[in-house]
Design brief:
The complex is a heterotrimer.
Chain A (H helix, E strand, L loop, with lengths): L34 H6 L4 H29 L10 H35 L8 H19 L28 H29 L12 H33 L12 H35 L6 H14 L15 H29 L8 H24 L1 H7 L3 H31 L5 H28 L15 H31 L40 H6 E3 L5 E3 L3 H4 L6 E4 L6 H17 L2 H20 L9 E3 L50
Chain B lengths: L1 H25 L12 H27 L11 H4 L2 H27 L2 H31 L8 H32 L8 H27 L2
Chain C lengths: L23 H23 L12 H22 L7 H24 L9
Helix pairs in contact in C: 1-2
Classes of the chains: A mainly alpha, B mainly alpha, C mainly alpha.
């Protein structure tokens, strides 16, 4: 075959690795000795998902603190806590943080952790790109928030309208931090989208056709397509803004004929699909949780799938409803008013299907179930106020008031965030091996629901009374005082519910030692991720299951009698996997994703302060890309999940012959009853690319 | 253990033998994925689909801003264009697509010498295109159309600049492939790598087809 | 194996292919066709009065240029990028992005009234 060059960095994939001796410092980290190294260089989708979640919670506390500052400032008329300039920064950073650094990453956390499990894969298609996506998101988020330390946050609103966003009106660096930080997170999102789409399209287990995938996986797929197409539009707009601010271009320079509406169009063409991609993962989670605690299948699976796809499509046709008062003219206003009304239909289909799922079911009101019902109820309220916005004459009254603030918090917090809370309670045992305390969880839910409604419910009234948004204070005598006070009390109640959630985590973890382990299937759930141990072994499944229908796992446990009664046919122990495989071939950890990711903020700092730093950052980026591309696909002797490694160190990733399940020579695990292999050789795991 | 080690060592040979046998039997063997397309190729196509949105935004910006305004200081882009020169550049880029696809065909046949020739040719043609762009831009600048001169100039340079950066990245990838091949690290069973780089290169050419028509030729 | 240039490349060597890829000579023909189309494009600039595209104030020119551009785009995508010979899912994925971009940006430009005189 081809020559094997005894060079320092790499060999071509598939080649014999036994005489390969890498330079020590460039060797892939095989078995990281310190635990922190295991996390820093991991390419395992589960660790990456957990890191996304943890980082998102960290940013949630930052964004939540900014929210509390806003509410404290607005407690009484003419508040003095924040000056007008500082208030502008706080509400801008609050919105930006919550949208880009909390809701989107929690969606990514679930997509990363859960989706490969739901499709029966061992990892995503490009594990190193997956790691890079996380680290780039973190780097971008930290870079963006470092603006607080370097002269103040961005102050143009999270939507950053031009020409306010130009150097004339915002001469400080805050907006540059915003812009460059979000370009970096945009790169993270885009690479993540490509990765996850390829994963869903290519790495499904045998028998998992598209219409047998769990709803969460479907919603994730639609979300990733939305990201794929929406992020480049924002990126284009952000480059225009960057060139204006840093290099004196004339895109939004009104004196040179720059048109502010160009920014608005580009931003909202991104921005509207953006809000759908924020809610769809939560819709997916709820679609998983409700059937489990109603002990009924999801009502109308194809309708839920197609309505999700419809939302994805139609979301591209409504963006200018954010611009009804921007002077776009009556024809445009009418058109977008109509399209916006239509988009309520697929969401309404989902609400009906969820309700029908619960109807006649044996409901069990666990914490995840409460949060899911909470989403259905709160999102309905938020959706209804959204429909009132679609009526353009009414929106002319509502826009730029607190009525809008109420709407989007109902759909984003009451919708997406409650859904994520439910998902966290539901999937916590699967990921961490212990259940979160139910009593604390229920208290968490009710406190959060109360605080949330106290905070945002009154904003409907405030908005219709005429209280402007994005303004640092209000005068006495308009009747705004009482509801602002209620909202502020609600906000602090909400904060205490978040604190309770965090307390629940530590409390449950401490108490878990004295409680029985939850096992693989504590909720008696329906989809295949519940048939593997909790916490999930590094290699996920062994063997990769073959599915024959939707809710395949449920029907391994239960059977329906002719008179529609459920009969348990197998115990949990019989159908669940034991997770004691050894010698499963896994992709190796790598240094390059994190190196590449942290080269990007260097470039960004350089663009703001000194181009030499950008050059340095650029060198880091280029070096990392080459190191990555030339890296060996697996470290010799490395890359094994499982508990025992019986083989010799330089065997290049051999399978352990003592494995009972009968792993074949390539290290892939046996698939269950794979019909195409009747001679003992088994189907390989779906290929995990050496490029990524 | 030893038999398994032997199997590992022989695996690449065995795989290609099996592939040929199966090809004789069934027509073709697909990648071991649900779609039958390798992850890398699928990923590149998906990425190219997203690039349509990026370039679309920049083209839209140009179309919006290209109308000269009375307040503008410098010349409008239309006034400085040298269509004959740009036409030659366009030919060059178009021919580079031909050399690219010939390179892909060469490696699929296992003809490494031709592969390197065509890769080098593609990179050279791409480099010629970039040189032409740089020459054009400096000429425009000397005629009074700089980056910050007007909204139309900013839009023009940003759009063509983005395209030029994409071409440059492509040239770097081509040269990297060439070097890898020269060092014997680009065997036939990695033909897909060349094909995927080729997809990127053709897309960059396709974007130029659009830019040439929409920006330069349309009145 | 490396000396066979006359036979087609077996599709088993090609990733995700449905039909055999073209041979080198066919690529050259395609390139010549592209060159010819480009010559026509340049002719619209060199000879603007030619009847094929001098009709309608500028509409003729724009129509012809757009058609030529689309044909060249399609040719490169189908032949050089192998969309014609690969599995249809690749075509569908790429078209999804392309069609979305075209529709959305045409809508944006329409809202800016660029098709009518006197817009800003």
């Amino acid at each position: 075959m081809a020559l094997v060059e005894p060079g320092p960095l790499a060999i071509t994939s598939g080649e014999d690795t036994s005489d390969f001796t890498p330079l020590g410092v460039f060797a892939r980290p095989v078995k990281p000795r310190a635990p922190w190294r295991a996390w820093l260089f991991t390419v395992d989708h589960k660790k990456i998902g957990i890191m996304y979640g943890a980082a998102a919670m960290f940013f949630f506390i930052i964004g939540g603190s900014e929210a509390l500052l806003i509410r404290a400032q607005l407690w009484a008329p003419r508040g003095t806590l924040l000056s007008a300039e500082l208030y502008n920064q706080v509400f801008t950073m609050h919105g930006t943080t919550m949208v880009f650094l909390v809701v989107m990453p929690i969606g990514a956390a679930f997509a990363n952790y859960l989706m490969p499990l739901q499709i029966g894969a061992r990892d995503v298609a490009f594990p190193r790109i997956n790691a890079f996506s996380f680290w780039a998101f973190l780097a971008g988020g930290l870079f963006l928030n470092s603006s607080w330390l370097f002269g103040g946050g961005a102050d143009g609103g999270w939507f950053m309208y031009a020409p306010n966003s130009g150097v004339l009106f915002s001469p400080g660096h805050g907006i540059d931090f915003w812009n460059l930080g979000l370009i970096i997170t945009g790169i993270a999102s885009l690479t993540g989208a490509v990765n996850l789409i390829v994963t869903v399209l290519n790495l499904r287990c045998p028998g998992m056709s598209l219409m047998r995938m769990p709803i969460f996986t479907w919603m994730t797929l639609v979300t990733q397509f939305l990201l794929l197409f929406a992020i480049p539009v924002l990126t284009a707009a952000q480059f225009l803004l960057m060139f204006d601010r840093l290099f004196g271009a004339n895109f939004f320079n009104v004196k040179s004929g720059g048109n502010p509406l160009l920014w608005e169009h580009l931003f909202w063409v991104f921005g509207h699909p953006e809000v759908y991609l924020m809610i769809l993962p939560a819709f997916g989670l709820v679609s998983e949780i409700l059937p489990v605690f109603a002990r009924k299948p999801i009502f109308g699976y194809p309708f839920i799938v197609f309505s999700g796809i419809a939302i994805g499509f139609m979301g591209w046709g409504v963006w200018a409803h954010h611009m009804f008062v921007s002077g776009i003219g009556p024809i445009s206003v009418t058109t977008f008013s109509l399209t916006t009304m239509f988009i309520a239909v697929p969401t309404g289909v989902k609400i009906l299907n969820w309700t029908a799922t619960m109807w006649g079911g044996k409901l069990k009101f666990t914490t995840p179930m409460l949060f899911s019902i909470g989403l259905v109820a709160m999102f309905t309220i938020g959706g209804l106020s959204g429909v009132t916005h679609s009526v353009a004459p009414a929106d002319t009254q509502q826009t730029d008031t607190y009525y809008i603030v109420a709407h989007f918090h109902y759909v984003l917090f009451g919708g997406a965030f409650l859904g994520f809370m439910g998902g966290m309670y539901f999937f916590w045992p699967k990921a961490f091996g212990y259940l979160l305390n139910e009593a604390l969880g229920k208290t968490n839910f009710w406190l959060m629901l109360l605080g949330f409604n106290l905070t945002f419910g009154p904003m409907h009234i405030l908005g219709l009374q005429g209280m402007s948004r994005r303004i640092y204070t209000y005068d006495a005598g308009y009747g705004f005082e009482i509801w602002n006070k209620v909202a502020t009390i609600g906000a602090f109640t909400l904060a205490s519910s978040v604190a309770l959630f965090l307390f629940n985590i530590f409390y449950s973890r401490a108490k878990a030692k004295n409680l029985p382990a939850p096992g693989p299937d504590p909720w008696d759930a329906r989809t295949i991720e519940w048939m593997i141990p909790s916490p999930v072994p590094e290699y996920n499944y062994d063997p990769i299951p073959t599915v024959t229908r939707i809710d395949d796992f449920w029907y391994r446990k239960y059977e329906e009698t002719p008179d529609h009664r459920l009969v348990r046919t197998h115990t949990t122990e019989e159908v669940c996997q034991t997770g004691d495989s050894t010698g499963v071939h896994l992709p190796s950890p790598s240094y390059w994703p994190i190196v590449l990711a942290f080269g990007l903020p260097l470039v960004a700092y350089g663009l703001i302060y000194t181009l030499w730093l950008s050059m340095l950052g650029g060198l880091v980026v280029v070096a990392a890309i080459y190191g990555w591309a030339l890296e060996s696909p697996d470290a010799p002797g490395g890359a094994h999940g499982g508990h025992d490694d019986h083989h010799e160190p330089d065997s290049g990733g051999e399978a352990d012959p003592s494995l009972e399940a009968g792993v074949d020579a390539t290290g892939g695990a046996v698939s269950e009853s794979d019909p195409s292999t009747d001679d003992g050789a088994v189907a390989d795991d779906r290929e995990v690319e050496t490029v990524g | 253990m030893a038999p398994l080690l032997m199997i590992e060592r022989l695996r690449p040979l065995a795989e290609s033998a099996i592939k040929e046998g199966l090809a004789a039997e069934f027509g073709h063997v697909e990648a071991n994925t649900n779609t039958g397309i390798s992850n890398t190729k699928l990923a590149m196509w998906i990425f190219l689909a997203s690039e349509c949105l990026l370039f679309g935004g920049l083209i839209t910006t140009y179309l919006l801003y290209k109308t000269p305004l009375t307040i503008e200081q410098g010349p409008a882009p239309k006034q400085v264009y040298d269509i004959p020169f740009t036409s030659v550049s366009s030919f060059v880029l178009l021919m580079s697509s031909l050399t690219m696809v010939l390179a892909v065909a060469a490696i699929e046949r296992g003809d490494h010498h031709r592969l390197r020739t065509w890769l080098a040719g593609t990179a050279l043609l791409g480099g010629t295109f970039i040189a032409g762009q740089i020459y054009e831009f400096t000429a425009f600048k000397s005629e009074g159309m700089g980056y910050t001169t007007s909204r139309s100039s900013s839009a023009f340079y940003t759009l063509t600049g983005f395209h030029g950066v994409h071409v440059t990245v492509g040239i770097i990838m081509l040269v990297s492939l060439l070097l890898l091949s020269l060092r014997g690290r680009l065997p036939e069973h990695r033909a897909e790598t060349v094909e995927v780089v080729g997809l990127y290169w053709h897309f960059v050419d396709v974007v130029w087809i659009v830019i040439f028509a929409v920006v330069y030729l349309i009145p | 194996m490396s000396t066979e240039t006359a036979t087609t490349i077996p599709t088993d060597a090609l990733d995700g292919a449905d039909k055999a890829y073209p041979r080198e000579r066919q690529y050259v023909w395609v390139a010549l066709a592209l060159g010819a189309l480009t010559c026509i494009e340049i002719a619209t600039y060199a000879a603007p009065g030619f009847p094929m595209w001098s009709w309608g104030d500028k509409a003729g020119l724009i129509t012809v240029l757009m058609i030529l551009m689309a044909v060249k785009f399609w040719t490169v995508a189908y032949f050089f990028m192998h969309l014609k010979f690969d599995k249809p899912i690749l075509t569908r994925l790429f078209y999804a992005g392309l069609v979305l971009a075209v529709l959305v940006y045409l809508a944006v430009l329409t809202m800016f009234n660029v098709w009518w005189p006197g817009h800003h």
